[in-house]
Amino acid sequence: MKIKIISFPAFLLAVLLILNGTTFTLNQIGQAVVTRLGEPVRVIKDPGLHFKIPFLETVVFFDKRLMSVELSALEVTLADKRRVVVDAFGRYVITDPLKFYQSVGSENGVLNRLNPVVLGSLSSVLGGVPLSSLLSDTRIFAMNKIRDEVNKAAKGFGIDIVDVRIRKTDLPLQNSEAICKRMMSEREREAREIRAKGVEMAQIIKSTADKENAIALAEAEAKVQILISEGEMEANRIYAEAFSKDESFFEFFQSLEAYRTSFNSKNSAFVIAPKGKFFNVMKGNKP
Asked: 67-170 has which CATH code?
C-alpha cells in the first residue's frame, strides 16, 4: 500500500511531463515550424493547442506581425554627383515560415540577409536621383522603387517587404566639415562688412556732427559780433547824444575814465609835461 502511494505522484508527474513535451500552444500573432531532428516537417499557422513528438520534434516560433529591420548607413553618390550618407530602415512580414526558417534561420538573422540587398538597391536607385528630389516629397517614388526591387529578392527568404524608408540624409563628415568652415568664413566676412559699414556710418555721423557744431559755433560767434557791434554803436550814439547836450560834462567824464584806467596800478609812472591837458581836471581847471 505504501509503494502504491509513492508511485502515484511519480506516475502523475511523468504523465504531466509527457503531456508538456507533446503539446504546445500557438497564439494569434505567431506561426511555427516543427522540426524533427533538425529537419522541418510541417508548418503551423492556426492558433490553438497542437501536438508534437517529445524529444524528437522541436517547435520554432515566428511572428506574424509587421517587423522592422535597421539597416547600415550607406554613402551614396547621387545623380548630381553629390555624396550623401543615407540612414534607412525596412519593414517586413514573414509570409512563408518554412522558407524563412530554411534561408534565414531566425528573426535575428534577417539583417544579415536583407542588409546587402537593400543597400545595393539604395545605391542603384538613388544614383539616378538628384539631391533636390531626395529632400522633397518626390523621394516617395524612389522609395517605392527600392521596395519593389528588394521584394523580388526577399521572396526567396519567405518574407514580404512592406516598406523601405530613409530616416535621415546627411552629408559625409568631410563635406560637413568643409561646409561648416565655408559657412564660418561667410559669417566672418559678413561680420567684417557689417563692422566696416558701422565704422563708415560712425565717421559720417561724427563728421556731420562736427560740421553742424562748427556751423553753430560760427553762427553764434557772428551773432555775438553783431550784438557787440550793435552795443558799441548804441553806446557811441548815447555818448554822442550826451556830448551834444553837455560838452563840458562829457569831457569831465572822459577825463575821469582816463584817470581810472591810467592809475589802475599802484606802480604807475608817467613821464608827461605837467602843463598838459591830461591833468586839467585834477588841477581843478576846466577840461
From this structure: 3.30.479.30
